[in-house]
Design brief:
Layout (H helix, E strand, L loop, with lengths): L3 E3 L17 E4 L7 E5 L4 E8 L4 H17 L4 E11 L1 H19 L3 E9 L3 H14 L3 E6 L5
Parallel strand pairs: 1-2, 4-5, 5-6, 6-7
Antiparallel strand pairs: 2-3, 3-4
Length: 150
């Protein structure tokens, strides 16, 4: 797939790379980490799957670097789609930090939209979305999905 970079889990991102050469960045899912895709042209960041990495800081630092690539080009809008089936407490901390960072970008004038997808019968994930929104003061659009569509 032209324009897609796959970032191996063990590889450190070099933030000096000129991201204009690429259209999409992808971090492949593992049994412990979610799939992450930054689509430059569509101005979207997707985080989907489960998140319980052994070292969440290492994983979410990669997501932060993807955002740095995106912002280095002076982009003024981003839609973030969070579609998590499960995350542990350690991941929750880094998701909170990510949303806090998004709120700061929003306060600096960037158009940020966050969609929080959850299975319609998953009350815990719905409550997590509400809590993240409340704690960070970042508006999350809570989007129920059918269990088969997840």
């Amino acid at each position: 797939m032209e324009g897609i970079i796959t970032i191996p889990r063990s590889e450190n991102l070099n933030t000096t790379v000129d991201q204009r050469r690429f259209r999409n960045y992808v971090i492949k899912a593992t049994s412990e980490t979610p799939f992450v895709a930054l689509e430059m042209a569509n101005r979207t960041l997707l985080i989907k799957g489960t998140s319980h990495p052994e070292d969440p800081r290492e994983f979410y630092d990669k997501v932060d670097k993807l955002l740095a690539f995106y912002l280095a080009d002076g982009r003024k809008s981003l839609t973030v789609n969070l579609s998590l089936e499960y995350f542990n407490t350690s991941s929750a901390r880094y998701l909170y930090l990510l949303m806090t960072q998004l709120k700061e970008y929003q306060e600096d004038g960037m158009d940020i939209n966050v969609n929080w997808y959850y299975k319609i019968d998953d009350e815990d994930m719905l409550l997590s979305g509400k809590n993240f929104s409340s704690y960070t003061q970042l508006e999350l659009k809570l989007v129920p999905t059918s269990p088969s569509r997840y």
